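Entry: 3 beta-hydroxysteroid dehydrogenase type 7
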Amino acid sequence: MAESTEVRNLVYLVTGGCGFLGEHVVRMLLQREPRLSELRVFDLHLGPWLEELKRGPVQVTAIQGDVTQAHEVAAAVAGAHVVIHAAGLVDVFGRASPETIHKVNVQGTKNVIEACVQTGTRFLVYTSSMEVVGPNIKGHPFYRGNEDTPYEAVHKHPYPCSKAQAERLVLEANGREVRGGLPLVTCALRPTGIYGEGHQIMRDFYHQGLRLGGRLFRAIPASVEHGRVYVGNVAWMHVLVARELERRAALVGGQVYFCYDKSPYKSYEDFNMEFLGPCGLRLLETRLLAPYWLLMLLATLNALLQWLLRPLLLYAPLLNPYTLAVANTTFTVSTDKAQRHFGYEPLFSWEDSRTRTIRWVQAMEGSAQ
Ligand SMILES: NC(=O)c1ccc[n+]([C@@H]2O[C@H](COP(=O)([O-])OP(=O)(O)OC[C@H]3O[C@@H](n4cnc5c(N)ncnc54)[C@H](O)[C@@H]3O)[C@@H](O)[C@H]2O)c1
Ligand SMILES: CC(C)[C@@H](O)CC[C@@H](C)[C@H]1CC[C@H]2[C@@H]3[C@H](O)C=C4C[C@@H](O)CC[C@]4(C)[C@H]3CC[C@]12C
């Protein structure tokens, strides 16, 4: 918890505050935002861990709610100084329908924006995504690009489409007059692939490896770089930009920022092995056995199976045509815009991020070690 002589008079709202990223944002705010008087945590599914946070100097208000319900959002936003909107359906595995993804990610964001305008909340940070940019459906690489790098952002998948629409709504809302006559100040943060304690996809890879006798099979060439960023540094960037939005409104308002740190550039699978390797898993070099066309055939069969089985059960494996295409396309960022605009520096080194993540995997029951 933050200890400071600063006056505690600010109310923050974090939507999606019980998710993988949201929980880290909530905990980071309590540790590093000394002006907090109340922290509202809004989520469809509240975590039991919230109870332990209610013993500190900040009033932590858990709000079970749905961002698709405008009245629930307005009630949660009313009186907040800052909203960090991280709630979303992060689905590239076919679990939710395109309509549901749109309803949550786009309509939900519209509801948050309108709630800010109607209730007078002036500062809104949106958790966007690298996928707003790419990889695009043409498989064009984005090699160590930045916020100004030209790139043909062409999407068909519901998830990136919804994130792009939502981000555009947030940025267009910058400068709108809110209740009380002052302007709304918004910005969007674009994390690349987030990793760290609580990452469900890392958990899925680990359990898949345990099921396969401690082995994982390489599907992607090691040469395909994929940007990754530690969840603690993403959370820190949210806290910092939320603090600087008021002071640097003219510079930061209406801007997008990639989330970045010193995590190494590697293929998605090789990067995962930085944590799964020390936990006893091995990545087998099966690329010669599984050429890309065979992987695409298997991915397509998975998609067909998902469609056939849907009336009976949800079959949503990691490998599908979309995830294979994304994993197989280089997408890395190299930027310092957040540092230049609001003084961001990663809070956690690569070594610390790696150690924390390894410890989390090791703590999962049935570690292969
Ligand atoms: N995980 C990543 O690699 C990554 C990368 C870039 C951006 N993002 C973005 O970060 C945000 C958080 O992602 P995450 O990885 O923590 O996902 P997550 O699924 O762990 O967290 C999302 C949270 O939003 C909540 N939520 C979903 N629908 C809701 C609704 N209708 N009303 C209220 N709450 C709802 C969920 O209950 C969950 O707690 C998302 O907006 C996502 O697009 C994630
Ligand atoms: C089965 C193999 C082909 C394996 O290598 C597939 C990996 C695949 C599941 C992931 C590869 C890239 C990931 C995405 C990327 O990190 C960025 C994302 C944006 C974020 O907003 C949401 C998550 C994701 C779409 C992320 C999802 C998993 C991958 C597709």
